[in-house]
Amino acid sequence: MKAIRIHQHGDSNTLQLESLPKPEIQSDQVLVRIKAVALNHLDIWVRKGIPGIKLPMILGSDGSGILEEIGEDISTIKCGDEVMIQPLLYCGECSYCQRNQENLCTSFGLLGETCDGTNAQYIAVNEQNIIPKPGHLSFEEASAFSLVGQTAYEMLVQKAQIQKGETVMIWGASSGVGSMAVQIAKALDCHVIAISGSEEKLLKIKKLGADETIHYQNESVYEKVMDLTDGFGVDLVFEHVGQATWETSMKVLRKGGRVVTCGATTGPKAQIDLTHIFYKQLSILGSTMGSVNAMKEVTKLLKQKKIKPVIDRVFPLENIQEAHEYLEAGKQFGKVVLSVSHE
């Protein structure tokens, strides 16, 4: 089979298209014939070098395809089923898993980071990593859903516990996770203030349901938010940008507000004024991926057509280097997807 692997960390030139044996499944696994995969910033971080990554590695966390082989211990699904891949790896037995907190599992992992991922023509995964693909989605759309859907729902609902009528500010609203967060917050009847650095992207965000938009390069985010909220600030800030936005994120929160963060694309170092936190009684919430329940609940919204994956551009698998460079340049609105040919 064809697969994308890295043997060393570095720039996009480390991404190599290779010919590898098709995976052999165990009795509790399935073999998925991959039709499409989506890129995430995680792929870039793994490529550049995350401590502990074992090389060589097939990248990729998201994907969709068709079940080609079924392990003998599995009876709930069949060959030919169209599926999405859920990238979270967990033991199912530790105290966290028993409390339905699989994303805190003592053996937590992700496809494409902990083990070989989806950037290949075939992948062998456990049954727990398979979700039926909604019929109204293309394979490309389905491939762009799992990681951002699971992550955004975990942040907004499981961690921040957003309530109807609350005001939610979303940084990087044109990204994959940001565009999904806008839709989830609106589906749950929140007032959404979305932020991006392009007029074209802001128009698209409006079409996704955002109530207000802010061009962070042309406007003061703090002043605009205070104006839009009559000086009170927002109930929740959806953070995944990090160092460049953190100070503003803390300032725009109203008393009793909270910020939930899943990433730091501009850097991990942030200044925190503790007096500001306890005086305003703020909450800072960290979130990584999402639980199995988060995946189930966000998939319900997907099936009800209340949310949808947003795709910017589709590259062939063979153009992986170009796709990484495109994502890394921040040109996209939504997800960058790779189509996987079997010719």
Features of the shown structure:
2 domains, 343 residues, six-stranded parallel β-sheet, alpha/beta
What order do the helices and strands come in, and which of them pair?
Blueprint: E1 2-6, E2 16-19, E3 29-38, H1 41-48, E4 57-58, E5 64-70, E6 82-85, E7 88-89, H2 95-98, E8 109-110, E9 122-126, E10 130-132, H3 139-143, H4 146-159, E11 167-170, H5 176-187, E12 191-196, H6 199-208, E13 212-215, H7 221-228, E14 234-239, H8 246-251, E15 253-261, H9 274-280, E16 283-286, H10 292-303, E17 311-316, H11 320-328, E18 335-339
Parallel strand pairs: 11-12, 11-14, 12-13, 14-15, 15-16, 17-18
Antiparallel strand pairs: 1-2, 1-4, 3-5, 3-9, 3-18, 5-6, 6-10, 7-8
Helix pairs in contact: 4-5, 4-10
In short:
The chain has helices at residues 41-48, 95-98, 139-143, 146-159, 176-187, 199-208, 221-228, 246-251, 274-280, 292-303, 320-328; strands at 2-6, 16-19, 29-38, 57-58, 64-70, 82-85, 88-89, 109-110, 122-126, 130-132, 167-170, 191-196, 212-215, 234-239, 253-261, 283-286, 311-316, 335-339.
Please, could you describe this protein's structure?
The chain is α/β, with parallel strands linked by helices and 343 residues long. It has 2 domains: 175 residues, Alpha-Beta Complex (Quinone Oxidoreductase, Chain A, domain 1); 137 residues, Rossmann fold. The strands form 4 sheets. Strands 3, 5, 6, 9, 10, 17 and 18 form a 7-stranded mixed sheet that branches. Strands 13-12-11-14-15-16 form a 6-stranded parallel sheet, with helices on both faces. It has a 3-stranded antiparallel sheet with strand order 2-1-4, with no helix packed on it. Helix 9 links the parallel strand 15 and strand 16. The longest helix has 14 residues. It is globular. The termini are close together. 45% of the residues are buried. The mean pLDDT is 96.
